[in-house]
Amino acid sequence: SVVIQECYVQNTAREYAKLYAAEAEPLEGFGEVPEIIPIFLIHRPANNIPYATVEEELVGEFVKYSVKDGKEVNFLRRDSEAGQKCCTFQHWVYEKTNGNLLVTDLQGVGMKLTDVGIATLAKGYKGFKGNCSFSFIEQFRALHQCNEYCEMLGLKSLRTTHQKQRKTASTKSKNLPNSSTVKKIVPKKGREHRDFISSEH
After folding, report:
1. Which of 86, 121, 141, 163 is the most buried (most CB within 10 A)?
2. What domains appear along the chain, each with residue ranges and CATH number?
3. Quick one: which of 8, 11, 5 has its CA closest to 38?
4. Would you write out the chain's pLDDT as a tens digit for each of its 201 residues?
5. Is 105 a catalytic residue?
6. What are residue 43's DSSP bridge partners?
């Protein structure tokens, strides 16, 4: 049943969040760590919907912090402390599971999160299969930008090769007149930027 799956996913993600907190909290300057609230399954045999879930009610502004698809750019995610720590949590899980699992759809009020999803590669991870498309893992890899919290945890950047290429591309364009520099360096779409980089080599 969907409800049982939802419960299983959220409580699995919660276990990862606890491990993340144990590693991040002792770090100087890290501060509060996002928490995934528990979700409880209740069985109501007399009811025509026999399973339901119960969880703490979150009061306040509900924000979606993580990328569900490439089009969703959320400033609250990018600029807020909770949003950055959620992105770091995703990176941490991704690295811990060798890129096999991603906690996604991170949303909630402040540092309290609920209704999360998990994406795994097609074969699953350690017997666990996620409820989100594995394309989310590819999107995360392509879109994630490390922040100071990723650095505090010593996570490996997912785009080291891009950065190296970008540096050489921009030094090459410095000796061009201003107008063409602007034209070349401001990409209309991410894809053109990548093509431009590879064509420089």
Report:
1. 86
2. 2-153 (3.20.200.10)
3. 11
4. 788 889 999 999 999 999 999 999 999 999 999 999 999 999 999 988 888 899 999 999 998 888 665 555 555 566 789 999 999 999 999 999 999 999 999 999 999 999 999 999 988 899 888 899 889 999 899 888 899 999 999 999 987 554 444 454 444 444 444 444 444 444 444 434 433 333 433
5. yes
6. 51
Beta partners for residue 128, in sequence order = 125
Residue pair 35/24 in contact by the 8 Å Cβ criterion: no
The residue annotated as part of the active site, out of 69, 105, 115, 195, is 105
Distance (Å, whole) CA 23 – CA 21 = 5
Tell if the pTM clears 0.70, that is, is over it. yes
Contact 133, 118 (CB under 8 A): no
Please report which residue ranges of 80-199 form alpha helices under DSSP H. Answer: 81-96, 135-143, 148-152, 160-174, 178-185, 190-199
Can you tell me whether residue 113 is helix, strand or coil? strand
Tokens of 8: 């299983």
Nearest to 198 by CA among 167, 165, 172: 165
